[in-house]
Every structure is written in C-alpha cells, then in structure tokens.
Design goal:
The protein has 399 residues and is of the alpha/beta class. The protein has two domains: 6-27 and 281-395, Lyase, Ornithine Decarboxylase, Chain A, domain 1; 92-273, Alanine racemase (TIM Barrel). It is built from eleven helices and 19 strands. It has helices at residues 6-18, 30-43, 60-69, 78-88, 102-110, 121-134, 172-180, 201-221, 248-259, 275-278, 311-315, and strands spanning 24-29, 48-53, 72-75, 93-95, 115-118, 138-145, 156-157, 167-168, 185-191, 195-196, 228-230, 268-273, 282-294, 297-302, 322-324, 333-342, 351-362, 366-369, 391-395. Strands 1, 13, 14, 15, 16, 17, 18 and 19 form an eight-stranded mixed sheet that branches. An eight-stranded parallel β-barrel has the order 2-3-4-5-6-9-11-12, surrounded by six helices. A two-stranded antiparallel ribbon has the order 7-10. A hairpin with an 8-residue loop joins strand 16 and strand 17 (351-362). The longest helix is centred in the middle third of the chain and has 21 residues, at 201-221. The protein is elongated. The chain binds pyridoxal-5'-phosphate.
Amino acid sequence: MIKLTETIRQAALGLQKASAEPLAAYIYDLPALRSHLETIHRDMPNNVELFFAVKANPDTRILEQVAHFTAGLEIASGGELELIQPYLKGKPFIFGGPGKLDSDIDSAMACGVDCLHVESIGELRRVIAIAEKHNKTQSILLRINPVLPDSMQTTLTMAGRATAFGIDEAAISDAVQLAQSSDRVELLGFHVHALSHQLDAGRHLRMLDYLLHHVTELAAAHNVNLRMVNLGGGIGINYRETDAQYVWPVFADGIRELASRPAYKQLRLRFEMGRYLTAACGYYLMEVLDLKENHGEHFAICRGGTHQFRLPAAQGHSHPFACLNNHRPGADSLDDTEVTIAGQLCTPKDIIARQAPVKHIAVGDLLVMPLAGAYAWNISHQQFLCHPAPEFHYLEYSL
Ligand SMILES: Cc1ncc(COP(=O)(O)O)c(C=O)c1O
C-alpha cells in the first residue's frame, strides 16, 4: 500500500478541487528533490563527479535544481543542448549517445562542451573534422561496449552484448590509434554506460569494480594515458516493491572505497545518472472517470493515460498508486477487489496497473502514482488522440 505524505495528499486534493475538468496532472516536490540531491552530492568523494542525464527529465524547473546540486549536465541531442544552456550557470556539460549529427557536434563545440563521448570510429572521424574547423583540441572519451559477465547484467543492459552502443573491444585499438594520431582530439579515457535498472548496490559496486579494473587494463594494453573514466548511470527504482529501494549508503561507502584505491585515486571518475536523481520527486495524478466490469475483470477508466505517463507500459510493470477517496455520495464504486487502471486511449495497451488490489474505489476518486519524476511524461506519445497535456505543479514549502 502506498503511503503519501500529508503535503502530497493535500496538494493533490487541492488541485482536484481547483480543476474545472476531471484531473490529470503531475506534481513535482521540489524540496524533496533538493534534499535527495543534497545527500547524494554530500556523499560523493573528491575525485568523483556526478552529472545529471537530462534524458531522465528535461523539465526546466527540475533542471534548475539538478544543475545546482550536480557537477554538470549530460546531454544526448541537439535539442537537449539548446534546452540546458540557461540552466548551466557556469557548470560543464558533456555530450554522449548514438547518432550525433554533425550540426549537433558543431554546436556542442561552439558552446564549449567539456567532453564528447564518442560512439564509433566513424563518429570519431567526424569529431576530428569538426574540431579542425573550430581550430580546437576537443577532450573525448571513447564509449566502449566491454565484455560483461552475465551475473552483472540487469533487465536493461547496453553492454556486454550486441547493442547499438559504444565501440566493440575488438575495434578499440583502431579507435585509439585514430584518436592519438590527431592533435584535434585529446583522449582522456573511456566511457561505459553498461546498464540501467540496477536495484542492488552491492551488485552495482561489483560491476564498477570490474569495469574500472577492465578499463585500466585496456588503457595499459593500448598505451592510453588514462585520466578519466565515465561509468554512466544505471541506479534503478523499484516500482514493483516500493519498500525495497536501492540502498544509497551502501553505494556511497563502496564508491568512496573504490575511488580511494591507489590504482584509481588519480583518476577523475564520472557518473551520469538519470532515473535515481529525479524519479522520487514526481507524482502523476489521474481522476477516475468510469468503473466497469469486462470479461470478469474490473476496470477503472481514468483521466490521462500512457500518452502522459508511459513509464509503466515502457517498463512492463503495474505502477503502484494510492487512491484518495474523494467522490460524491452515491458515485459508482467497488470494494475489496482487484481493478485494472486504464487511461483514455483507444488501445488495450493504455494500462497503468493491472488487477491491483483496492479497498474502495469510486468515480471521482483521485489516483496518485508516486515515483513518476523520471522517464514518465517526456517518454510518452503525447499527441495520440489529441488529448491536452496534463497540468504541472511544482511544490515549494519548508522541509
Ligand atoms: C549513455 C547514458 N548515460 C546515462 C543514462 C542514464 O541512465 P539512468 O537513468 O539509468 O541513470 C543513460 C540512459 O539510458 C544513457 O543511455
């Protein structure tokens, strides 16, 4: 059962009351976001820099906060490059991801990108040519797709198998030679974003230990003066068992130990985390429009849906929710049963939670989905059926 704070409960009910139409909305809890970011920032050792992967949530009110508490921002497109400029306030940005356009690389260099994460040998050639045009030496990392033991993989793994990401280890030698033959790029080291959805801090640390050892050996084998390693993002959120989240203090202790080892303490280690930084500050709200039974299953049809909140459909989970009983007397209702939460779209895939247990649910009630602050609104197919966008509310209060 999801327990909401009184602040979120009151905010959600207040929004519903103020809304002329049944409500679909996001709430972002900015004080909670700041407090979370402060803890993470405090726990980072000196030689570890944490960047925010903007793809997780490009909402500008979120970016303002995150840019303040992190080392800088990680982008993966020309659109993100443009978006972040007013929020950087002197902080660096780094640029990774596949399929970079020449025009994006060109603009990133013009804006002073701190480091480019190069995805292939073809991209490296283009980076060199564009740096030549800018008459500059661009710092780069080579993104590698290393061998990764099966025991270290998760449900969303980008390395250790055939994916579109990074440079195969068999091609590293050619990539290093090309980089070292040009004075237009300075190869600082390697980038590995191996996976997302890591829920186990111990397992995560074992993978980081393995990867650091691996890239150190790779650098030695290819004569790379290793100064920087970017270890990507990947800390997950447990949407299925909300009480069993990633244990941050275990990671914080482990990364302090790892970063202080003699072999690594001269390195600049970087992370570019997305989901873990912003997921918990977001809530998605859906008002119940209709209740019905179909082929033996109860359905609650709600305002909004996967065109606003595609996260559960994308991840294949039933999203947890709290039901705020706020209906008018006599409204259609169900008691002590299981109900599937559907949205307003004309597709059977528009499901937020399947056969979730409820004590009491009625037309007019408000469902509040927590953990909705990352890969939620921004990954949704927003134009489908021309429904309006949800409302967005940003909470400010004293903690
Ligand atoms: C290259 C890269 N870095 C960082 C991230 C952020 O990952 P996460 O949100 O799991 O922390 C992603 C996510 O896909 C990514 O592709």
